[in-house]
Amino acid sequence: MTARANSFDAAAARERCLRYRRRILDISQQVSALHIGSAYSCTEAVDAIYNGLMRAGADGGSPDTFLMSKGHGCMIQYVILEERGILSRADLDAYCTPEGRLGVHPDYGNPGIVAATGALGHGLSMVCGMALAEKARKTAGTIYTVLSDGEVQEGSTWEAVMMASSLKLGNVIAIIDNNDFQSLGRTSETHPSFYPLVEKFEAFGWETVEVPGHDSRAIFEAIAARRGDKPFMLVAKTTKGKGVSYMENVPIWHYRSPNQNEYRQAIEELEAAR
Amino acid sequence: MRNTFSETLYAEATQNPEIYIVVADISPAGSMAKFSTQYPERFINVGVAEQSMIGICAGLALKGGQPFAYTIATFSLYRPFEMVRDDLCYQNLPVTVVGMGAGVIYSTLGGTHHTMEDIAIAGAIPNMQIVAPCDPAECTEATRWCARQKNGPVYLRIGKAGEPDLTKGAEPWVFGKLRYLRRGTDVCILSYGVITKMAAELADRFQARGISTSLVSTHTVKPLDRDGIVAALRNHKHVIVIEEHVPQGGLAPQTKQIAWDIQAQCRLDTFTLQDRFIHNYGSHDDLLAAHGLSIPQIVHRIGLD
After folding, report:
1. Contact B62 A129 (CB under 8 A)
2. Domain range for residue A154?
């Protein structure tokens, strides 16, 4: 693991994440609404999984699996799948149109999408089932997932949290996109008992680490250094709408698309960050 | 029926390494203990966590598995409903959701343990198939079919224990087809699941009066054998539906709809659970009788007494 940790190129990750945010911004101009803030919040997490952690298989696929449990953040997944040629530019161009096959939430059956998500609190149990199948067959695939902090409020998530550790699923790696925002406000204000998170997962038998969620190297290294005998939870402290100043921590950008002026400003800010 | 289910599934699971049994803190009796010892990696007890039971089954199926989720019917279908709908039906995965002890079989446990609307609820979801065997032998056929099919999700509605054999000498069981347990010319009684026993008793009453009676197991409730229902309506003077389910969304209203569509000329009577929660306790038969489902009450309403 450490050898791979040393191989992670943080500068390249930064470049990729800027490119992905820019691509999502372009797609935002095709539609009136997409979950842009939610995708920006987990850009580094999803990038680290696809471009750092998942192993490359001989056939071009991977023995590992990524399931986007926070389905509403899937724009970041779409643009990564596009870059890899798994989805086409035409697919992204036809996003949310009658001609296309991609919607606001990932749909099972589309290339690169391993499960239909969107309703919250479903992903982690499916991840457990996938991890069990890998273990039973001794195929040793690792199952990665990204959860929203909002969906950690679902009781079903906690059923899966209990099961993953009870079943000793060391091949489960989850990242919580902890941007502290949900539709009606800051979670730390609306539901203060939601915190602390790390202690809760540790109490349920998960190896748990908290990192700054836009620090690609920190994400990669924390996961690469895991012990592997228990399911692993990374609490990624993130900023909703990360990368565009007027979107950051402003709930409306959970869903809205920027208008032309806002689009231009966002492009300028992303370019300036290069 | 529960034991037959276990034995059949055990036999299938020893042949097929993709079969998993995911239970929610309830043991499928009999052979399942053997299975759990022999194949612990394929026997998963999620505890009292039915949403996770369905989600885990979905994850196993997404990786090519053929899982069975098993608990008391109300907890296998109602409690994790959105997981059944989204994870299993929307993704169209070959997972069998076993509803054990459906209807009002848990007659002393009260309304929280009664499953009176499951056909309507499961049947409303696209892709869901519903199989409800009437006796242990039919349960064997149904379980074996569930273990081998790849169409998509199945809700397998089974009884508990002590069901008599009703299908000895009947024509072969075929998924999606009505099954005549006996053939007559005047009256046809359609039923499925455990209450088919009452349908058989009613058929005996007709026969005793010299009225030639067909008895049919509509074990596949979805997709319903429409052609078979049409033939039953056309070939008999009097068709009777008996089901352990509320009046809406089950076999009774579907049979009426088909009868209307084809302008059926036969008499059609339906006997179902009532559209209400009752607070009675007693035997399974006591509960059914409180809903109006007993031989004397049905005989009286038909005018056979």
Report:
1. yes
2. 2-272
